[in-house]
Design brief:
CATH superfamily of the largest domain: ATPase, nucleotide binding domain
Number of strands: 14
Shape: globular
CATH class of the largest domain: Alpha Beta
Number of helices: 15
Strand order of the largest sheet: 5-4-3-2-1-6-8-7
Number of domains: 2
């Protein structure tokens, strides 16, 4: 089965073509036959596309005003030139899409219909940087592969079983009945990494209490018990929770009232400040990239050090919340860009949790490979570094759905 995966971010697009053969899913992830990445922030003047297939890398400049044409160009590289991997697009059996917000209606991978598209569209106000791009990708595929089934894999689905006490906000209950609740995000990553953690530990997922730390430009934690997400840090939108690259995370909501009353803020101005100009970028003043923060720290930049300290402080606080939900801990998992690659973030996060029996081996942490245990031998709580593979997880969800007959 050939599965095309489209993973659209707020300013990027990653696509992969996988082939899964046989009657069962492979126990380990497969490398894609073809990969494409589009970065719309590469330059003020153009987007940048990179294609990898057949051991060949191709690069293209794209017109940012013609995103649909860019999608068509990307698909063209599957069947033409040095990156040709199939004879015809009709060889693709199914297309899987990562969709950030699916609301409360979808708890599993779902065949995309007009009704599903309408739901994704109606939820644009709750994921304005992502859901429009998902619709764009779905509609682009419809034009060139109109008879091929498309499946949505929702970031919110994994958190759908959160107990009500974790999902409902302490505001008048009528607003929950109107859809204002905690949905949670990064679900595909949290689900994959909790499963991979159980595999690394050689224990049934259903027997474990795990906290997964998806730390990237966007960041969230999930408390996973018996394979189910019972709490997470993101909520109604991806803004709640941890301090992030450009997002504030949770703040006193009265600040917003104050800014409206005293400083003439409106919804647009608040949204821009909280989602684009806060977090690490808001404190450092120039970049929300953790790599730049650490470079600044190493140069003695006091503001960079302060931004880092804030990030770690808020991360530890949120870890405490997840611990309280689980009532104990078997494994702490770090994943995504920061979680996988920043040894100092892992070290400083863990240092004050030794009272739980959580200890990391400094050498293992400094030289951590992917999908490894960096704990000391005597640690009661295992600390793992897991390479999140959202695209492969989406492909697996599509394979399973297709084999269930849609």
């Amino acid at each position: 089965m050939k599965i095309l995966v489209l993973n659209a971010g707020s300013s990027s697009q990653k696509s992969c073509l996988y082939e899964i053969t046989g009657k069962n899913l492979p126990k380990t992830s497969s490398k894609p036959l073809w990969e494409a990445t589009i970065d719309w922030t590469a330059s003020n003047d153009y987007g940048f596309m990179e294609i990898t297939a057949n051991g060949v890398e191709k690069e293209f400049k794209l017109d940012p005003e013609k995103r649909q044409a860019a999608m068509a160009k990307m698909l063209e590289t599957l069947t033409a030139g040095d990156t040709k991997i199939i004879e015809n697009l009709s060889e693709i059996n199914v297309v899987g899409h990562r969709v950030v917000h699916g609301g409360s209606d979808y708890a599993e991978a779902t065949l995309i219909t007009e009704e599903v598209k309408t739901t994704i569209k109606n939820l644009i106000p709750l994921a304005p940087s992502h859901n429009p791009n998902h619709l764009e990708g779905i509609e682009a595929i419809e034009k060139v592969l109109e008879d091929v089934p498309q499946i949505a894999v929702f970031d919110t689905a994994f958190h759908n079983k959160m107990p009500k006490e974790a999902a409902i906000y302490p505001i008048p209950y009528e607003w929950f009945e109107k859809g204002i609740r905690r949905y949670g995000f990064h679900g595909t990553s949290h689900k994959y990494c909790s499963q991979k953690a159980a595999e690394i530990l050689g224990k049934p997922l259903e027997s474990l209490r795990i906290i997964t730390c998806h730390l990237g430009n966007g960041a969230s934690l999930a408390a996973v018990k018996n394979g189910i997400s019972i709490n997470t840090t993101m909520g109604f939108t991806p803004l709640e929770g941890l301090m992030m690259g450009n997002r504030s995370g949770s703040i006193d909501p009265a600040i917003l009232i104050y800014l409206i009353q005293k400083h003439n803020f409106d919804a647009e101005k608040l949204n821009k400040m909280l989602n684009k100009e806060s977090g690490l970028k808001g404190i450092l003043g120039k970049s929300g990239d953790m790599r730049q923060v650490i470079i600044g720290m190493n140069k003695g930049d006091e503001k960079a050090q302060f931004a880092f300290n804030m990030f770690i402080h808020r991360l530890r606080c949120c870890l405490g919340e997840m611990l309280a939900s689980l009532g104990g801990l078997d494994a702490l998992v770090f994943t995504a860009g920061i979680g996988e690659h920043s040894a100092i973030v892992r070290e400083k996060t863990c240092v004050d949790f030794e009272f739980l029996g959580l200890k990391i081996d400094k050498e293992k942490n400094t030289n951590a490979g992917m999908n490894t245990d960096i704990s000391t031998p005597d640690a009661k709580v295992r600390v793992l570094v897991v390479h999140t593979e959202e695209d492969w997880a989406i492909a697996c969800e599509c394979w399973q759905r297709m084999n269930q007959g849609l």
